Amino acid sequence: MGLYDFTFYDLIHRNAVCYDGKPAWFEAETGATTDFSAFKTQVDCLAAGLQKAGIRSGDRIGVVGKNSLAFFTLYGAAAALGAIVVAVNWRLSENEVAFNLDDCTPKMVFADNEFGETITSLRDRLPSVDRFINLTDNGPLDAFDDLLDDAPFSGEPVSANDGLVIIHTAAVAGRPRGALLSHANLLCASLHLNHCFNLSPDDVHLNLLPLFHVAGLFMAVCAFHAGALNINMAKFDADKAVDLIAAHKASLLFDFSPILGSILDAGEKNGADISSLRAVMGLDTPETIERYRKTTGGCFYVMYGQTETSCLTTMGRYDDCPGSAGRAIPLGRVELVDDADNPVPPGQAGEITLQGPMVFKGYWNLDKDNDQTFRNGRHHTGDLGRFDEKGFLWYAGRKPEKELIKPGGENVYPAEVEKVILEHPAVSQTVVFGIPDPKWKEAIKAVCVCAPGQSVTAGELIEFVGQRIARYKKPQYVDFVESLPEKDGAIDREAVKQRYGGKQPGNS
């Protein structure tokens, strides 16, 4: 540790002293509680074992698993060594998992029992991996406990600017990009969130978003940073979430529609008291937000951000300006620019750009992409927004080159879905785009032209896609048409969206 450095491991050390004996983590599945000092001991044992096994600063460690204490401990141990966690979305297909891991050439891979067979089948496709380890007690891989070493741990210096985690963003033109985030990114985001929520050691965070997701990881860390308790759910279930909120007086969670709505439904059905839920941040409909406020009296916090901006670019209270995404974060210079990177005036839409300590380190091994996104000394998000006279950001969609769909908080690029649809022999042309959806905020629609003499049903095509890439990327709606509108000899995507987008039959 340098004189001016502070890392995630330093935070773990600090909290073991400040909150010795105070509960830090509760596993909902087992009922086990771990306090802050015991957590540091577990981190040190794992770090010592990883060090003995040859993990050094800058090495990558892959992990495919549901939320667990072991997963969170792995983040801590990697932080102690200066290693980088490659957190893989377990909802991906086998081929997608293989790509994301191999893209970062990890020396070790950890996996839950549930994904042990998948990882075992990928051994030959991951030549960089020396060892495959169970993230849980039993499974087809090497035992987790055998890796632990209770010898005194002594790590090498780690910088706050060193990488800590790689999270792959949605595939652009069919290729996912690994966003590298540093210790400084993580801790700066944590302090922003703590400031926003006014967190204290008395708070309780319901940790229901996956730890492979930037919001899931950063919310868990912000609660840990504040000395609050993380109530961990391996997988979201609304009835179980309501029970945990009521039993532990949970005060905080992050929401992507339809999470909050399903919690409110379950609370009403079960007659549970969820009034302790004083702070919710995320993306949801005005109707759900208002229902939450009336049910709990709590505050809903809005935000705009992406993995590349350490989750946050703007944030604020929903009540301050309903419909907006809040104001620029305290340590962020947010500017809206035109195509020539000139600032646009208030009220005019421009590309959202960010400068400051929340900007990620770059895409893993993609120098040309980094040159493009970091041009002129700003991170270019590819999203559009406008500022009003009071400095509130109003989201205004995406730039044409960044046609991104966000069903339930996940990122899906149309090009990736179109590529798979066109692998079906019955489809000759397709356009995929996002449409408004009352449950998921945004749903995926495909408009297709069948090849001469060929046919396929919507259900068959949806299942075809779901078997080849992550199922959350499959279309919810499919239209078959005789032809697609063209402009200058190419498919006119905007015309397709205008003609076949909007509210869908049965979508209320």
TrEMBL record:
Q: What is the superkingdom listed in this entry's lineage? A: Bacteria
Q: Transmembrane segments in this chain: where?
A: 69-90, 208-231
Domain AMP-dependent synthetase/ligase intervals: 15-364
Any one GO MF annotation of this record: medium-chain fatty acid-CoA ligase activity
* One Gene Ontology term from the biological process aspect of the record: fatty acid metabolic process
> What residue stretches are annotated with the AMP-binding enzyme C-terminal domain?
416-486
| Record keywords, A-Z | Membrane, Transmembrane, Transmembrane helix
Q: Which InterPro entries does the entry link to?
A: AMP-bd_C (IPR025110), AMP-bd_C_sf (IPR045851), AMP-dep_synth/lig_dom (IPR000873), ANL_N_sf (IPR042099)
Q: PANTHER family, from UniProt?
A: 2-SUCCINYLBENZOATE--COA LIGASE, CHLOROPLASTIC_PEROXISOMAL (PTHR43201:SF32), ACYL-COA SYNTHETASE (PTHR43201)
Give the protein's recorded name.
Acyl-CoA synthetase
